[in-house]
Amino acid sequence: EAEVAQSPRYKITEKSQAVAFWCDPISGHATLYWYRQILGQGPELLVQFQDESVVDDSQLPKDRFSAERLKGVDSTLKIQPAELGDSAMYLCASSSTGDGNTIYFGEGSWLTVV
Amino acid sequence: GNSVTQMEGPVTLSEEAFLTINCTYTATGYPSLFWYVQYPGEGLQLLLKATKADDKGSNKGFEATYRKETTSFHLEKGSVQVSDSAVYFCAPRHGGSQGNLIFGKGTKLSVKP
Fold first, then answer.
1. Interchain contact, A108 vs B100, CB within 8 Å
2. Distance CA B68, CA B102 (A)
3. Using an 8 Å Cβ cutoff, are A35 and A44 in contact?
4. What is the pLDDT of residues A5-40, one digit of tens each?
């Protein structure tokens, strides 16, 4: 069964350092999402791509966060500099126009900022 | 704006008990509706979905019916198992095939043997 791949699975970084997360969506999925999930809460959308274009980044803290999907396939989410409040799970998800409107999630990347 | 409200957890049940987790949403249109499940330390797994009014989604003994008149999508299971212990998220998807999911805080379920 096709899956959304994410790496690294776990990351510990010191505040003010840079950190990056990678996501490879299900093959053929044009829409890619990055969500952030703080412990004990539901996921919140950070950025949405349609192919290589950003559709929605209204909740992305652009002073420190950036996201790209240069060739419309895999994507990277970067944080620089990391702050203590960035500790969370970063979830990547993807979807296609068919498949019953379903969005599929990866296993997530846990970030701890110390 | 669009939002979703789930019953507060944690919900603690004994094995084989009946489960209901309430979910209501606000929407200007007719979203698709999803239930996702999250086991400790893992990502979200699709549990079931419904894309139009009166549709019933079902999977692994769980069911939910899209009720347009009450804007609800309550999750039910007739007999829970210890392995059902997890956090459950109700999520409407607005904007059609290019929309995104709106999540509430989730409901944590603990099933005791």
1. no
2. 17
3. yes
4. 999 999 999 999 999 999 999 999 999 999 999 999
